[in-house]
Write a structure and sequence with these properties.
single chain, 134 residues, mainly beta, Leucine-rich repeat, LRR (right-handed beta-alpha superhelix), six-stranded parallel sheet, two-stranded parallel sheet, 2 helices, globular, cell membrane
C-alpha cells in the first residue's frame, strides 16, 4: 500500500493477506471514498484503524475471519453510506454504536438468516436504510 498515492480515492485490496488492521494503516489515505478489504484474512481491526477516513462512503469487509469488534470502529466514518459485512460479524457490533453512523443507507450482509433480524437496530436512527441479506 505504500506505493499508492496519498490522494487515492478507491482502494481495492481484496484477497490480500492483511491479517489485522493497525491504527496507522490508512492514515495517509485521507481522500479514500471506497475501500474493499474483503477476503483479506482480517482477524482484528484496531478501534482507530479508520479514524482518518472521514470521506469514506463505501466499505467492504465481507469474508474475513473476524469474530467480534473491539469498540466502535465506524464512528469516524461520518460519510459512510454503504457497508458490506458478514451477518455474524454484524451481530457483534455494539448496538448503541450504530447511532454514530448517521449517513449509512445500505447494509449488505452475507451468511445469515433472512429474517431481517437487524431491522430494529436500523429502523429508528437510520430511517432511510435498507438491509439486504444474501
Amino acid at each position: 500500500m505504500a506505493e499508492c498515492p496519498s490522494n487515492t480515492t478507491d482502494l481495492l485490496l481484496m484477497k490480500n493477506n492483511l491479517n489485522s488492521l493497525g491504527k496507522k494503516i490508512f492514515t495517509r489515505y485521507t481522500q479514500l471514498r471506497y475501500l474493499d478489504i474483503s477476503s483479506c484474512n482480517i482477524s482484528a481491526i484496531d478501534k482507530s484503524a479508520f479514524e482518518k477516513l472521514t470521506l469514506l462512503t463505501e466499505l467492504n469487509l465481507f469474508d474475513n475471519p473476524m469474530k467480534t469488534f473491539q469498540g466502535n470502529i465506524f464512528a469516524p466514518l461520518d460519510d459512510l453510506q454503504v457497508l458490506h459485512i458478514s451477518h455474524d460479524l454484524l451481530s457483534t457490533y455494539p448496538r448503541e454504536a450504530w447511532s454514530d453512523v448517521l449517513n449509512l443507507t445500505k447494509v449488505f450482509t452475507y451468511g445469515g438468516p433472512s429474517n431481517k433480524s437487524f431491522a430494529g437496530i436500523f429502523s429508528v436512527p437510520l430511517l432511510h436504510m435498507s438491509v439486504t441479506y444474501a
